[in-house]
Fold these 3 entries.
Entry 1:
Amino acid sequence: MKTVLITGGSRGIGKCIAENLARDGYNVVLNYNKSEKQARQIQKDLKEQGIKIEICKADVSKREDVKKLVKFTLNKFKNIDVLVNNAGIAKLQMFNDITDEDWNEIIATNLNSAFYCTQETLPNMIHNKNGCIINISSMWGIVGASCEVAYSVSKAGINGMTKALAKELGLSNIRVNSVAPGVIDTEMNNNIDNAIKEEIKNETPLNKIGKPIDIYRCVKWLIEDEFTTGQVISPNGGYVI
Ligand code: NDP
């Protein structure tokens, strides 16, 4: 049975990926940071369906927490076959309003986390000569978003890491890809005005806002695929082509 470690699994996209992969029969370690109650609820709900998952608190923007998270996963399941770097935060603000604290928090949570999680997981994957790393990026990392410069930079960084690392790890049979979603209906977008969401929907060729399940489907495909690496795949309804 394959083992998946997913960061930021307590809500939204991460929750959907974790729940569905658990239903598909994967061993799942769901990481959370602040939302302990939600993480416990997911574990409880799945248990009632006869499915066991592990949950582990860690602030993935911190190296020491990530070390503990990876150790926890290896103690439980011996291997990590799939790492999904999903944890992320966003903040809408004008470029000149970004403080050093804002900048550092966004880069640490969205980009450094993927650096730490990947580095701590790699020795096990290299030893097994097998692994799949999926970085949840964003279409804004491809085209840039006004009033989300720090976020766009963090996601563009993720895409750069994906491409460079895929070249380095190919011979170890480790695939590295980015999934760069369009706008997805989660709590992350609660602060976006409904009128703006409607506008985005109308400008999207498929005429809809995405759902977490759309991202799960892409992740699942990447896990099962054997010839895709170094790619930035963007399920976005055609908003960015
Ligand atoms: P949510 O805000 O719904 O969920 C974010 C998740 O990240 C939560 O589970 C949260 O956990 C976790 N998280 C945040 N900071 C940390 C941290 N320091 N350590 C561990 N976990 C952390 O967001 P989404 O589900 O929408 O987003 C998931 C990913 O998808 C993000 O990387 C986001 O950038 C990306 N994305 C989202 C899009 C969207 O439109 N929703 C579009 C494109 C990309 P907790 O609450 O426990 O701290």
Note: The chain has one domain: 3-233.
Entry 2:
Amino acid sequence: MPFEATVLTLYPDMFPGFLGESLSGRALARGDWSLETVQIRDFATSKHRNVDDTPAGGGAGMVLRADILAAAIDSVAPDSRPRLLMSPRGRPLTQARVRELAAGEGVVVVCGRFEGVDQRVIDSRGLEEVSVGDYVLSGGEPAALVLLDAVVRVLPGVMGNPDSGMHESFENGLLEYPHYTRPQVFEGVEIPAVLVSGNHAAIGKWRHEEAVKLTSERRPDLLGRPAAVQPVTK
Ligand code: SAH
């Protein structure tokens, strides 16, 4: 069964968006994964089909109504797919979680808007809150596209060279080593000699050392974290 993504949103036209291009777009066209959107507004009952209301307790902004969002979620046939809510309060998305999601049957993704969604829906429908970073977007749609991009690229057969994913940043708990390609000399700067030596053991060692150096400088927090996949030994 191909990986099935269902996205609940007030802006279905934002999908597939950039996922319709390049590798993910070709995989979508081939049927390696599927994407369905559910318009939350279709479940509004009032004359003007309002979906939001003022926050209980007062304060700025509006909140997505519990009854409408719950009806939209319940319209998706119950299955074993995880139900995610894109949310800045969620657990930050990691490559390890991306791998887990890609190994499953698919995802149901709820995109928030306004100040967010009524807490009772999060609780009663068992939504797992997922964040794409410590900043606030105006809606869950770009976050959902980011999550789906990361998941789809690791689905079997989507990436041109399956081996190329294994060395990537986060996969082995490290940021990736620096890359070089032609020309041999660029603005007077040469490619590091070891990379053109043909000595694969030395190249592997150099890359690992560079990855460790970069990671300890920029993201020391990653060093204690479990890897997304088993380290590739070559
Ligand atoms: N009032 C909320 C922010 C609401 S932003 C708060 O302070 O926590 C509106 C919607 O955008 C959210 O419901 C969520 O779906 C989405 N969103 C915003 N930032 C996000 C992030 N970093 N990761 C995932 N989704 C995000």
Note: The beta strands are 3-9, 33-39, 52-53, 63-64, 83-92, 106-111, 128-131, 185-186, 189-190.
Entry 3:
Amino acid sequence: MSSQRSQPAQAPGAKSKTYPVPYFTSIPGGLQPSQVISVSGTVLPNAKRFHINLLAGSDIAFHLNPRLSEKTVVRNSKIKGSWGSEEKSLPVSMPFIPGHSFKVEIICEAQCYRVALDGQHLLAYTHRLKHLPAINALEVAGDIQLTDVQV
Ligand code: GAL
């Protein structure tokens, strides 16, 4: 696997950049309230699932996991090797669609993450791993083409 990269691979003359998937990058200094993490991409036509993870060492502070095959968006945390309880409720039917582009913004607030999809609030996830400065890496993996990441 390649090491962390902060810039996408872009062939000379390419029309649009794409990022390698799985994609890992560090969040310098860790998270703090009001910080926004932005991930843009396109769901692959036959996608089953993808995820955006916010990491603190081997813990997954926030696992945002659209499952196209189940038409759900699973949220969870993995702390000391164990997954917690899944959060699945949504105010709308499955908003991620194979073949469609998306922009996910994860707004880190003091008590929770707020997730917006294409500029619209989608869900909130109360912090389980509460020490925000320790959450210092981002992973994006699964069945998407990744076009932009901002940390
Ligand atoms: C598991 C799955 C993991 C993760 C987790 C979230 O079943 O294998 O990848 O999505 O659910 O609760």
Note: Residues 34-79+96-150 form a domain with the Jelly Rolls fold (CATH 2.60.120.200).
